[in-house]
Every structure is written in structure tokens, then in C-alpha cells.
Task: structure prediction
Amino acid sequence: MRGRALVAGGALALVLAGLAVWLVLASDHEENKAATIGLAVTVGLAFAVSGLIALWRRPDNRTGVLLAGVGYLWFLGALAESDNSWLFTAGAVLGNVAFGTFVHLLLAFPWGRLAGARDRLLVAATYVLAIGGNLLVFLVVERPSSTCEDCRSVIAVSDSPGLESAVEIVWTGLVLALVVAILWVVAMRFRLASVALRRVLAPVLAAGALSMIALGASLIASPFSERVGERLYFL
Result:
């Protein structure tokens, strides 16, 4: 990766981080601003900078693109902190898309390319669920946030709490099934790898698997305790 492109990529990451911080600080409905800023900036910049370094060192390997992609897309979630209904809706619908790129990265590591149709199906399903869940919720309820009465869905075609609950139940079940499938693939990949490859895979697959487990636990806990679900999400 050329120096100018590297500098431009780093500048973009800093601009996105700055915008995310500004949105959180200006939000009237975010209660944990310090924790949210810490999470947004740390995760976003860590992935973006790691990706740029990977592209600089090994430009032929697409792992750097995926790493940077997770970082840049992560900042989209900050739009949901806005008190403007259009930005709030966009952030809520697109805020989870980074998880699709994260799963893509996890399954494509260390070569940067997916091994086969099964992996491509899992990645595609992750992108669909990452966007589709909130999209359907925002279509059937006008005020989807319990912490922000003024935040409205600008794409709502009805206002049905019953449909919202049904969508969330189905979406949670599908996401948990997907998490299990991804963890199984990761475990099998590690088991079948050579000793040398295991040394490369171990730290990345372990961290990725723990992240997926925490995400699954957050989804299970959230309906019973929003506070526990939020802490698991931060984890």
C-alpha cells in the first residue's frame, strides 16, 4: 500500500472517530457516554489501524482490507446516537453491518479469502441478519428506542409492538443458530490445521470465538436484563 493511501486511510479513521465522539457527546438519549466513546473509538481505530498496517506490509493479502473494513463500518453505529430521526434510523439499521465484515475476517483469516461455499453462505447470512433484524423492527414500530421518546423510525409503515416482539424473537433465534454454526466451523478449522498453522490461527480464532460467544450471551440476556445485555455487548 502506498504511503499517500496509508496516510489517507489513517486520516479517514481519525475523522470517523471524531464524528463518532461528537455524536455521542451531543446525544440526549445516551446514558453511558464515556463507556460508549471508549468502545467506539478503541474498537474502530484498532481495526482500522491494524488493517492499514497489514495492507502496507502485505498488500496482496485481503486480510488488511477486511480489518480496516471492520473499523470503518464500526463507526456507522454512532449514527444511532443522534437525536435526528433520519440519522438515528440509518445508524440503527446499518450499525451492525461491521459484524458481517468481522465474521468475514474471522473465516477468511489468514489468507484473506473464504475457503468455500459454506463460508460464503455464513458470511452472507451474517450480513443479512446484521441489517435485516433492525430494518424489520424499524418498519413495524415508530419509536423503537425505550431510552429516546423523540427518536422515531422514518421508515415505519405501521406501529405494532406485537410484530416488533415477533421479529426480535425470530431474529434472535436465527442469530444464535448462526453463532453456533460459525463457532463450529472455527473449531473444525483449528482442529484440522497443521501444527504450524495452529500457532497462527490460535490467537485470532480464540479472540473471534470469544467475541461471538459474548455476542450470543448478550442476545440471550437482553430480554431479561438490559443492563446485563449491555455489559456483555461492551465485552
Observations:
- The chain has a mean pLDDT of 87.
- The CA atoms of residues 74 and 98 lie 5 Å apart.
- The chain has nine helices and no strands.
- The two ends are 32 Å apart (CA to CA).
